[in-house]
Specification:
- The chain is α/β, with parallel strands linked by helices.
- The chain has a single domain, classed as Rossmann fold (3-Layer(aba) Sandwich).
- Helix content is 35%, strand content 11%.
- It has helices at 8-17, 23-34, 48-56, 72-85, 101-104, 106-122, 164-174; strands at residues 38-42, 61-65, 88-92, 127-129, 146-148, 154-156.
- Strands 3-2-1-4-6-5 form a 6-stranded mixed β-sheet.
- Strand 2, helix 4 and strand 3 (88-92) form a beta-alpha-beta unit.
- It is globular and about 40 Å long.
- The model has no long low-confidence stretch (mean pLDDT 94).
- It binds iron/sulfur cluster.
Length: 221
């Protein structure tokens, strides 16, 4: 089904209907609705969404943005998750070599290393699944479960309503692989030049682009 089938009002109504729904039901709707036009974008902080989604559709396409600045722990987690779930993992890379752009213009760097590679891939897709949650930060507290993204595609956030405690419980009960940096002071994990440890009680995303007013890389804007 084309994303053009849905008006913004349709998406808002679907999103509202899914507020109390289990994440697996939301994933199942996305799989049935978009078929091969759907992919899952994984950050490799943890594999909760991948665990939920592959139980619905074991062959779901999973994409990972290799910005060329990931921590070694993140790359190792990606390999571990790929093997554990026998994923059809697509690694998306930027069309530029590593450089110093992050030192002078983080917006342009994120655009080149995250937004543009995903946009190129999504040109052939209608919808994507993300692990975005309202509890992660103030900037995400109003996230819808189903919404239109900046490209006009449908973005589905099956875990939007999950608390940190729900995530921890799911990880424990389902033995879900997690990035070891989560236990080393990094509750939110991005590229190493732009991710710092946070103090206990701080916003989970406070270590991302710390010292600047940037809070999002652009994927979710
Ligand atoms: Fe570049 Fe930092 Fe954005 Fe990674 S998070 S793409 S290093 S600006």
């Amino acid at each position: 089904m084309s994303t053009l089938t849905f008006t913004d009002a349709d998406l808002a109504a679907i999103s509202a209907r899914f507020e109390p729904a289990p994440a697996a039901d939301i994933v199942a709707w996305a799989v049935e609705t978009f078929g091969d036009g759907l992919c899952l974008a994984a950050s490799m902080a943890d594999a909760v969404l991948i665990d939920v989604a592959t139980k619905v559709d074991p062959s779901i396409e999973v994409v990972f943005l290799d910005t060329q600045y990931h921590f070694p722990e993140t790359l190792a987690t990606a390999r571990r998750v790929e093997q554990r779930y026998r994923l059809k993992l697509r690694v998306l890379t930027p069309d530029r070599e590593p450089d110093d752009l992050w030192r002078t213009d983080t917006d342009a760097c994120c655009q080149a290393r995250k937004v543009d590679p995903l946009s190129r891939h999504m040109a052939e897709r209608a919808a994507w699944l993300t692990g975005l949650r309202r509890a992660e930060s103030d900037s995400r507290r109003d996230a819808a479960i189903v919404q239109r993204d900046g490209r006009g595609l449908v973005k589905v956030n099956p875990l939007a309503t999950w608390t940190d405690e729900q995530v921890d419980t799911y990880i424990r009960e389902h033995d879900v692989p997690v990035n070891p940096l989560l236990f080393d002071g990094y509750p939110s994990i991005g590229c190493w030049p732009c991710t710092q440890r946070v103090e206990p009680g701080e916003d989970a995303r406070a270590g991302r682009w710390a010292g600047s007013d940037k809070t999002e890389c652009g994927l979710h804007l």
